[in-house]
Amino acid sequence: MIYQGEALSVQLLQDGIAELRFDGTGAINKLDRATLLSLEQAVTALEQTSGIRGLMLTSAKEAFIVGADITEFLGLFELPDAELGDWLAKANAIFNRIEDLPFPTLSLVRGYALGGGCECILATDYRIGDTSARIGLPETKLGIMPGFGGTVRLPRLIGADNAMEWITTGQENKAEACLAVGVLDAVVDTEQLQDAAIRLLQDAAAGRQDWQGKRARKCAPLTLDKLEAMMSFSTAKGMVAAKAGPHYPAPITAVKTIEAAAALGRGAALLIEQDNFVKLAKTPVARALVGIFLNDQFIKGKAKKAAKAAPATRKAAVLGAGIMGGGIAYQSAVKGIPVVMKDINDQALALGMNEAGKLLNKQLERGKIDGFKLTRVLSSITPTLSYDGLQGVDMVVEAVVENPRIKSQVLAEVETKVSEDAVIASNTSTIPISTLARSLKRPERFCGMHFFNPVHRMPLVEIIRGEQTSDDTINKVVAYAAAMGKSPVVVNDCPGFFVNRVLFPYFFGFGKLIADGADFVQVDKVMEKVFGWPMGPAYLLDVVGIDTGHHAAAVMAEGFPARMSKAGKDAIDVMYEQQRFGQKNGKGFYAYSQDKKGKPKKEADPQSYQLLQAVVTGQAEFAQDDIIARMMIPMINEVVLCLEEGIIGSPAEADLALVYGLGFPPFRGGVFRYLDTLGLASYVALADQFAHLGPLYQVSPGLRQMAADGKTFY
Ligand code: NAD
After folding, report:
1. To test the ligand 1 pocket, which listed residue (401, 407, 499) has its Cβ within 8 A of the most ligand atoms?
2. How many whole angstroms from 427 Cα to the centroid of ligand 1?
3. What EC numbers are recorded for this enzyme (predicted)?
4. Theoretical Cys-Cys bridge with 536: which of 91, 387, 527, 658, CB 3.0 to 4.6 Å?
5. C-beta separation of 422 from 343 below 8 A
């Protein structure tokens, strides 16, 4: 044994070929601080051992190295600039020493080699893998960029254009694609990997492979002439800036880093990477995106625990084959859980099956599934008009029309058709779960399971605990949502649950802005382009449906009269009364037509302005910041109340629900991350300037106290 550490070891195999084997203490290998320290000691041992003719890096786990340890990131990002720079320099010195070992080196890649794992294999002379290899540099997705030499070694290995594509998209690349660009030198069968690696190293050691030449090219400036460089980098900058948009600085910084270092050798190029990494690590965007990743891990951890505690759903039933029921049935089936889809209407069933078929055909066209899987998934959805097919069903999701009387009746009916231990969940968006539970004999086996439209795309499922819902029931439904590939967030019962409860104050803020004279098109533009929402409030209402919005607004007003009842009519009422229901009937705030591809195209409709005059009482002009404040303060205050009242369990769950369910701008991380970034005291001072606008603009005493105490949510 040449070296033995906690996370890796080095031993001599045969004929002077050594193996450095990563074998972390957890289920996967991560390049955390402890592993880096160990790697440094291993390299020292290798440098001091004589007789080594070649080295291969391998993993004892299924995957090579999944990346750096992201749980360490936020702590690292807090370090002073110089200290963070030193840490990067120290890590880079280790990879440089691997690259400079006096014998040929090779990485043997199975499974993931991502982020730091990818940068580690880039330091060796050769890389061979099997077909399971997945290699990439996903750092820009977290608001940072590669910091262990990725922006230096990758372009020198596969060319600047390929490297910029890998780094700016953060994509994971399959073995074949890695071979095509030259990240992998060979792809071989798993059983032959080790032999192939030893043979290649022996060949290289014997001088039959030019490993020194390969190594020298990786450490030299990029071989691009001036014109090529200009074309390459200006095209990339244009494309990347357009795609990432102004709120995500990492991809464009990565391109500029590669450009600035193009004419430099390894040492100088690494210094540029280091400086730019530090700058990105200090941005609120990096903190927000890493925060979302960590919140997502937190939710996944909770779902795993739930899955261990509850029996898995073997067969599900969905009641209602409409927009939501059809989507839920599809999602269950596509993830391998067979489902009975019941409706009272034959045509609805046909439509539901047709939609599932369309989604599957799209996946077939994209090569994501084969014909066999398409048939298997479709045949695992059983459409029915009767309750007969419900034997063996252990999970029911009710998604019939949003009418309390019909829902209560359907729930009571289905309870008599399934076994006693089956769980029933309702996809209602507004009716309190404890109200619906009254129609059931076993309310403890009942809860809310609120999906978002379109089900196959929206990652969030809000799971609502009613007054009598048991822990077993919650565990079962959380596990089912996770098995469907969704992120389940458990909330307590109240009108609107969490997501709609905090969305409607935002719409009320919109109504007040319109009443005071704002132009809805301007409000949409500011909330989309400046704040970063995927849709502004007027457009969102049109997409959700003005009728749906109008109904939910009334439910919210009844549920929270002190804050959400209205003195008179507002903009939503005007649209509703004129039956301008939005996209669904071609007219809402905007007028809709179809573009050449048949997609809805929106235009500001002069008639909307005329109609809105009925509720406009002011003529103020609004600056961008005022629009943002007046729209966001009601939502933020309601989110804080939900935490204080225990409707949502933690800032992490709230923020994830906002990003995954509403499309809250990811670069802001969610309401609590946004508050921490603004500073609680600054937020309170801002909100106080708008306090005259009514109860939704009042900061809670709890938040005021936190601000006074200098606290943060994370
Ligand atoms: P929808 O009108 O598209 O579908 C409802 C279906 O229920 C229809 O096919 C209808 O025939 C069927 N139905 C009516 N009575 C039935 C009965 N007794 N048994 C079986 N089926 C019956 O409605 P939707 O948009 O899919 O909404 C369904 C539920 O999901 C509602 O509670 C709604 O609030 C909720 N929801 C909707 C959305 C959305 O964006 N559409 C989002 C989240 C939650």
Report:
1. 401
2. 8
3. 4.2.1.17, 5.1.2.3, 5.3.3.8, 1.1.1.35
4. 527
5. no
